[in-house]
Amino acid sequence: MLLEIKNLHTKVENKAILKGIDLRINPGEVHAIMGPNGAGKSTLGNILAGKPGYKVTEGEVLLEGKNLLELDASERAHVGVFLSFQYPVEIPGVSNTQFLKTAVNSMRKAQNQSELDAMSFMKKLRANMEILEMDQKYMKRGVNDGFSGGEKKRNEMLQMMMLEPKICILDETDSGLDIDALQVVSKGANHMRDQKRGFIVITHYQRLLNYIVPDFVHVLADGKIVKSGNRSLALELEDKGYAWINEQGV
Ligand SMILES: Nc1ncnc2c1ncn2[C@@H]1O[C@H](COP(=O)(O)OP(=O)(O)OP(=O)(O)O)[C@@H](O)[C@H]1O
Ligand SMILES: [Mg+2]
């Protein structure tokens, strides 16, 4: 088992947000999470990544058997948790190359691997940028500084490809992407898909799942997973809306 979420409950400012999430992800699997606005999807991603401010009141999260909840956000990144944000941050003044190099090497250090030398780093960077059809000029600029929405998403995918995390959490990576960018970003994700890692793909639209094809689809509503299925569930949701699940009496 790669990631195991057991009976996860969360409160934010004393309000219950997640009300008992159970999710098991095997290596190699892609799990899509859909659900209405405010259901708790981003909260789940934030909790897995260790964003401060969320109080876990019950439950467990294990990554390869290790208790994730006792690690801080940077320690979680080091053991292989990656969260792409619904709204990526900008870090003006730190070049994209420098940021990535520092991030990759601090991760390698934490995993007792030697630092990548400049040549190997650049080689890997160029190969990944080629897959993402990114121009070199983005590397000299500050991290996401003045990047368009689509460029930020592409840049996050580059970060993910460089860091090679074990669990990749994509929170609405498709929002604001044009069709070409959507294909390119999906290509990046698919390139990373292998038996070593798993994905949690949060999205509102079935469209993304045509490109990043999930093994499982879960519907999160009011802090709980109310329905799980395969890819066809996403199609059915698009067709019938979330009200359809309520009508089924779940
Ligand atoms: N830091 C916070 N402070 C106060 N409330 C919060 C905080 N984070 C989340 N919430 C609340 O938790 C609920 C779930 O929010 P969350 O962002 O997880 O929803 P979501 O499923 O990602 O929705 P969307 O589809 O709109 O992105 C919302 O009611 C939100 O206002
Ligand atoms: Mg969200």
Structure overview:
The structure is a single chain. With 250 residues, the chain is α/β, with parallel strands linked by helices. 40% of the residues lie in helices and 28% in strands. It has 10 helices and 12 strands. The chain has helices at 41-49, 73-79, 96-110, 118-131, 137-140, 149-163, 179-192, 206-211, 231-240, 243-247, and strands at 3-12, 15-25, 30-34, 55-63, 66-67, 81-84, 91-95, 142-143, 167-171, 198-202, 216-221, 224-229. It has a 6-stranded mixed β-sheet with strand order 6-9-10-3-11-12, with helices on both faces. A hairpin with a 2-residue loop joins strand 1 and strand 2. Helix 2 (73-79) crosses helix 3 and helix 6 (149-163) runs parallel beside helix 7 (179-192). The structure holds adenosine-5'-triphosphate and magnesium ion. Magnesium ion (MG) is lined by residues 41-42, 86, 171.
